[in-house]
Structures are given as C-alpha cells and as structure tokens.
Amino acid sequence: MNSFFTTLRQRNPILSAFGWICLISAVVCVGLMLITNVQVLGINAFVKPVKFFLSSSIFVWTMGWLMGYLRQQRSVRIYSWAITLILAFELVVVVVKAGLGQLSHFNVKSATGGILFSLMGVAITIAILWTLYIAILFLLQRPDELSGTYLWGIRLGMLIFIVFAFEGGMMAARLAHTVGAPDGGAGLPGINWSTQHGDLRIAHFFGMHALQLIPLFGYYIARRPFQTVLFAIVYVGAVSWVLLEALAGRPLIAGL
C-alpha cells in the first residue's frame, strides 16, 4: 500500500494531495457526526459530507493513477488543478449546508440555495466533460506499458463512469433522488438508499465506480481484451437494470 501511495504521489502530486485532504476531511466529519444532533432528511447532517469526501478521494486517486500512463502530461496537470478546484467548491458547499442543517442538493427554496445548486451543476458538468476528454486521449493512444485487457478496462471504465455521472442530471431535473415518494424515508444503514421506493443514487453509485472496477478486472482477471469488453457489457446491463428498477419506484433491497 505504501508503494501505491508513493507511486501515486510521483505520478500526480496534485490529485494525490487532494485525495489525502478529502480523506482527512471525511474523518473530521465522522467526528462531527458524533458530537452533533443536526439532521437533514432524518439522518445526521454530516453523513452526506462523509460520503462525498470518501467518493472524491477515491475518484481523484484513481484518475491520478490512470492518467500517469498518458503522454499529454501538460493536459493532465491542467485537468488535475481544474478537478481539484471544482470538487473543492462542491465539497465546501456540502459541508457548509450540512452545518446549517440544510440540503446542499435540490435546494431551491431560497435564492441563495438555488444559485448554489445551479453553480454546482455547472461545475460538475464541466468536470464530467473534461473527464470525457481524458477518456478520448486513452482511446486515441496505446501506452506501450499497458496490456490490452488493462487498457480496455481503463477506456470502458471511464466511458461508463461518464454516462452514469450524467445520470445525476435525472436527479437534478426531478429535484429528488427517491422515486415514488419524497426524499427522506427509510434507507439502508450507512448509505441510506431507500428500502421502500426507487432510488436513483444506486445506479449513479455503481455506474461511476466502473472507473475502478472495470480497469481492475482488466488488470487482474481478464486474459484477452474481449473478456474485459464482455465484463463491461454485463456490468452496464446490471447497472441499467438497477436504474430501471429505481425509475419504476422499486427498491434494490426492500424491508431492511
């Protein structure tokens, strides 16, 4: 593990450092969960910041590692600073709103809330489109040190990530992530995915983590590129089914 973080710092010091900041911030928010009773939608207000900090840390470390294979390192540095600034803005809004006991997303009840939500949407759209540019760079070149199975894992993982990152727009358009009821009902422990109704966050989560899972399959398990492609197709099918279930108002796991 030490070797991983040492190599990551060498490959991308910007995203390596930002990932550590996110991880430390997640730990701080866990501490805040223990000392505050402020709630948003029936759960501790700092549960959401913890999830956002952890997911941001995993995302930037993954991108920092993968982009180390690209030849266009100037583009990588620009992307790294842009992603850092965009995610920092998003995370600050999420934390401040949690501290105030208010929603950070879908909050259009006030002018300030609406402006912040709109800015967050614009910022994250820029981040996703810029990530698409990085995916295109991987499609246009084949780094010599990468096997075909791993390279296709990176390519497909990034493309699937981008598709399901944009799926977040469905939630923004509805101003809710629950289908069939208002947000805030019973949910799975820790992650709070609805156990009574459809929840669009589930496909969003699994689709975006294709960024890690598909390359890992290509690196460790696949022996031929077509195996990586087949795994990606099955993965997309499974996540799409989860999305359709949510849109139909059915929970992934009911009754817990």
Q: Main attributes?
A:
256 residues, mainly alpha, 2 domains, two-stranded antiparallel ribbon, two-stranded antiparallel sheet, 4 strands, globular, membrane
Model description:
The chain has 256 residues and is mostly helical. 70% of the residues lie in helices and 3% in strands. The protein is built from ten helices and four strands; from the N terminus they run ααββαααααββααα. The protein has helices at 2-11, 13-35, 47-66, 73-99, 111-140, 148-166, 168-174, 201-208, 210-220, 225-247, and strands at residues 39-40, 43-44, 178-179, 198-199. It has a two-stranded antiparallel sheet. Strands 3-4 form a two-stranded antiparallel sheet. α8 runs antiparallel to α10. The chain is globular, with a radius of gyration of 19 Å. The model has no long low-confidence stretch (mean pLDDT 92).
